[in-house]
Task: inverse folding
């Protein structure tokens, strides 16, 4: 009867050693959250900045060889205003 228990005990020992080894490995490789993470977050401004978009539109019309309106009309001529 003792002869039948030896393979089971060896298998149990292997499983236990693997379990402990993986437990130590995964606990040592945990990802720590940066304690300053809240300082990186900021609230989104609920007011839409139309002036910034207007400035961007003016600069794109001055610097690009084709205006955005002309480009959009060339890409999709059925949506002309």
Result:
């Amino acid at each position: 009867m003792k002869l039948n228990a030896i393979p089971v005990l060896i298998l149990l020992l292997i499983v236990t050693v693997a379990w402990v080894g993986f437990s130590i490995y995964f606990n040592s490789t945990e990802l720590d959250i940066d304690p300053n993470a809240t300082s990186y977050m900021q609230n989104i401004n609920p007011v839409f900045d139309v002036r910034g978009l207007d400035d961007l539109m003016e600069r794109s019309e001055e610097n690009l060889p084709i205006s955005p309106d002309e480009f959009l009309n060339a890409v999709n001529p059925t949506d002309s205003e």
